[in-house]
Amino acid sequence: MKKIIVDNLKYRYPSAQELALKGISLEIEKGQFIGVIGPNGAGKSTLCQALVGLVPHFYHGAYGGSVVVGGLEVLKSEISALALKVGLVFQNPFTQVTGAKLTVYDEVAFGLENMGLDRAEMIERIDRALTLLDIYRYKDRNPFDLSGGQMQRLAIASIIAMKPQIIVLDEPTSQLDPQGSEEVFRAVDKLKSEGMTLVMVEHKIEKIAEYADKVALLSGGELVDFDRPIRVFSRPDLERFGVAAPVYTRICRDLKIKDEKTGLYPITLEGAVAAVGSLE
Ligand SMILES: Nc1ncnc2c1ncn2[C@@H]1O[C@H](COP(=O)(O)OP(=O)(O)O)[C@@H](O)[C@H]1O
Ligand SMILES: [Mg+2]
C-alpha cells in the first residue's frame, strides 16, 4: 500500500526567485524507512514541509504537482486533518516542547486534548507512546530537565500519541550528542518495527545505510536518485552531491572489495565483513 505519492512536485517560496523543488516524483510504501540525503539547500526540509502540508498552507508560494499522504491530497486538506496522518519532528528538541506543561506526561497529553478522546483512550495512548520511546520512567519530570536525546524522544512521543501513520524527521539528531543520537535511532528503529512509515533527513550516512529501505538523494531541488542504499551509496559520483559514502564503502572501495552477489561496494560493517569473507 502506498502511503506517500509525490507527483511532479514543484514549489517556490514567496520571496524566492528559484524553485526550491523542481519536479519531484516518488512513491513510498507502508512501513518503509526512507533516508533523505543531499547538500545544504538541496530542498530536503522543503520536501518534509510539503509532506505535512506546511508547504504550501503555511508558507504559501507557488505550488505545482501533487502530494498524497495517507490517502489525503495535501493541497485540498487542512493542516489539522493532515496532522492525524503525518507528524513532523524538527532538528531542535528544545523548540518542540510546548513549555505549557510541567511534566513529560502532561506534555504528551497536551497534544491529545483537542482530539475529543475519552479519558481511558488518552491514558492508553500516552502510556503506549512513553513506553515505546522508552521515557515512561521520566513521566513526572519537567520536560526541560531532560537531556537532548530524551527531549527529542518526548517530541516524537507527543506525535506518536496522535497515532499518525507516517512520521517525517528533519535531522532529528543533528543537535544531539552521540548518546542522544543513538537513543533517537533506536527509537526510530522501534517505530519501524511497529509498521510505521518513516521519512528521515539525516547526515549520519552510516545510520541511513544501516536502517533505510531506500534513500532519496536530493540536489538543487531535484531528486537525483531514489533507490536502495547500496545502489545510491555506491554511485561513483556521490561526493559531487556533497555526500560522503559510508566509511565501510570508502574502505572497501580503496581495497577494491566488492560484494560478490551485487558487484557493488558494501555499505555496512556487516556487508564489508561478508564481502571480505567471500574473498577466500
Ligand atoms: N522560508 C524560506 N523562504 C525562502 N526560501 C527558502 C526558505 N526556506 C528555504 N528556502 C530556500 O529553499 C531552498 C531549499 O532549502 P531547504 O529545503 O531548507 O534545503 P535543505 O533542507 O536541503 O538544506 C534553498 O535555496 C533555501 O535557501
Ligand atoms: Mg534542512
Describe this structure in words.
With 280 residues, the protein is α/β, with parallel strands linked by helices. It folds into two domains: 2-245, Rossmann fold, CATH 3.40.50; 246-280, no CATH class. Helix content is 37%, strand content 22%. The protein is built from twelve helices and ten strands. Strands 6-7-8-3-9-10 form a six-stranded mixed sheet, sandwiched between helices. A four-stranded antiparallel sheet has the order 2-1-4-5, with helices on one face. Helix 5 runs parallel beside helix 7 and helix 6 runs antiparallel to helix 7. The longest helix has 16 residues, at 178-193. The protein is globular, with a radius of gyration of 20 Å. The protein binds adenosine-5'-diphosphate and magnesium ion.
State the main characteristics.
4-stranded antiparallel sheet, 22% strand, binds adenosine-5'-diphosphate, binds magnesium ion, 280 residues, 6-stranded mixed sheet, 10 strands, globular, alpha/beta, Rossmann fold
Brief summary of the model shown:
With 280 residues, the chain is of the alpha/beta class.
Layout of helices and strands, plus pairs?
Layout: E1 2-12, E2 21-29, E3 33-37, H1 44-52, H2 54-57, E4 62-69, E5 72-73, H3 79-83, E6 86-89, H4 93-96, H5 104-112, H6 119-132, H7 148-160, E7 166-170, H8 178-193, E8 197-201, H9 205-211, E9 214-219, E10 222-227, H10 229-233, H11 247-255, H12 269-277
Parallel strand pairs: 3-8, 3-9, 6-7, 7-8
Antiparallel strand pairs: 1-2, 1-4, 4-5, 9-10
Helix pairs in contact: 5-6, 5-7, 6-7, 7-8
Magnesium ion binds at residues 44-45.
